[in-house]
Amino acid sequence: MGISTGVKTSDGASLRHKLSKRLKFSSGKSKKSKEENTKSLSREKDYKSYKKENGGQMNIKSSKKDKDFVKGREGSDGEVRGNGRPKPMNFDRKRKRIYAEQDMGGGATIDDGAEARNKKNLFKKGHNRVKCDSVKEKSGDKSRSIWVSSKLKDAASKTKNASHKLKDAAESAEVSNTKWRGKVKQSDRVDSGLNGSLKKHTKSNSDSNKNLNASQYKFPDASPSKSFKKTVQYKKGSNDSEVLDEQPKKKKRVIRIDPYDISNKRLDDDLVIDESAKEKKKDLEKDAEMSKNAQFRAIQPSPSILSFVEDNLLGRRRSIEIRRAGYNIELSAPLDNIPLSTSSERERIEENIFRNKLAFFAAAKVSSSFPAPDLPEIAFAGRSNVGKSSLLNALTRQWGVVRTSDKPGLTQTINFFNLGTKVCLVDLPGYGFAYAKEEVKDAWEELVKEYVSTRVGLKRVCLLIDTKWGMKPRDHELINLMERSQTKYQIVLTKTDTVFPMDVARRAMQIEESLKANKSIVEPVMMVSSKSGAGIRSLRTVLAKIARFAKV
Ligand SMILES: Nc1nc2c(ncn2[C@@H]2O[C@H](COP(=O)(O)OP(=O)(O)OP(=O)(O)O)[C@@H](O)[C@H]2O)c(=O)[nH]1
Ligand SMILES: [Mg+2]
């Protein structure tokens, strides 16, 4: 054998020999393989001569053996080794497996002389090749595949045990399939790595097997479980998520608190205190209201007021009642016009002065910007949203000349409107509640007070009071001011259509009684509704007299 003779030579010669041997070995064909080829050729010759000797008459068994022999020779060069005699394939495989198992286990080898050693050496090297080839060539061979898979199965079972989370059989089967595929590929890699290590090292088979085992865990490329681990991890992760999904979800207890349910509250709880305090406050307020309402209902209106309310259809009325009285409810402010009238034109207004066009000509935020007092002025004052601007439109029957809004505080300046050439109507900003800053509202109030107390040519102030709510402290303030400044003022109840007729009369009576002692007040209290038009004609008549006789 080339290897053994090479070792026995002297140092220099052995080095050269080793070098040449290595070069030959790395070139892919060793001296040994050449000898093997020669041997196999001689064996083929022997076989042919043997065939001739038997006269080509071979029994089925021998022919099968021969076929196996030929097949084995023609196949991998690791299949047939030894004494040159053709051997049955199965026997040879069995023996090789025994050797392989012994070598893999690192146990004792069979030593049957030089031939046996040669066999063993050949097998050792051949085993690795066989294993490599077996995977490459016999991937379709089930028996060989099982041999490979048993190892892989061990590794797989280890990993499987480590995973601990593969649950059902179907999933594990799926995972093992993945492992299997990964392992077959991995075994190719391991074997190729092993062949490479054989080229580099001249260690024993047991060492190489150790390397094999070690390489499975040391080198990431050669590690059979890298991709497999990944697969397992992936599966594991997916299983985890599945497991989590499968776990019965804890239902969150949603406690809905009823804010009005105080059955579970302690008596000293804030909520109870608040609630009870609120209730007490409400009761007190209710009592006060009751007393006010009772006082109000106790008012007995004068016969003149009652007849005025009934004649002008003041208060909340049903439409059928208005229709029966002969008014056309299709018109705006129908009660303002003459009975059975179909026209809303201002030409039908009984007072000529109010037939004139209403024309805006000045607005003042401060007293210095007041226009010159050329005409007698009639001003409309009152709290915000009481209906001042609406009344101007209703009196002149010119809807939209003066802007109105349901939002308190729309009119923020003193607006001057000429009604023809004889009189000027002045729309004042409201006081009291309004969507404006306190300082702004104070400024409006001061402006109004200044206007009503100092304005030359101001002949009448119509102080508008909401029929529903009556007089408020701010109204009293302005009345006191006008009393001091001797400005003539007349109370006009607005929005009479929002309350019952009797309440309209009561409110009028209440105000008359409360302001009886005042000197600057002009009686009677007027009652109007810009919406229904009730009482507008009466107010026109009163105001037309002022315009007719007033002089600046
Ligand atoms: N039901 C009813 N609503 C009225 C009457 N007069 C006015 N209104 C409504 O009351 C609201 C306020 O009317 P305005 O004329 O703007 O009141 P204002 O006093 O000028 O308000 P400010 O300019 O903010 O001071 C509007 O939505 C009107 O439609 C009425 O006689 N009856
Ligand atoms: Mg207004």
UniProtKB/TrEMBL annotation:
Key words of the record: GTP-binding, Magnesium, Metal-binding, Nucleotide-binding
Keyword Metal-binding: yes
Biased composition (Basic residues): 15-32, 119-129
Signal sequence extent: none
Limits of the EngB-type G domain: 374-549
Chain positions covered by the region annotation Disordered: 1-250
Family named by the database record: Belongs to the TRAFAC class TrmE-Era-EngA-EngB-Septin-like GTPase superfamily. EngB GTPase family.
Name of the protein: EngB-type G domain-containing protein
Organism per entry: Xanthoceras sorbifolium
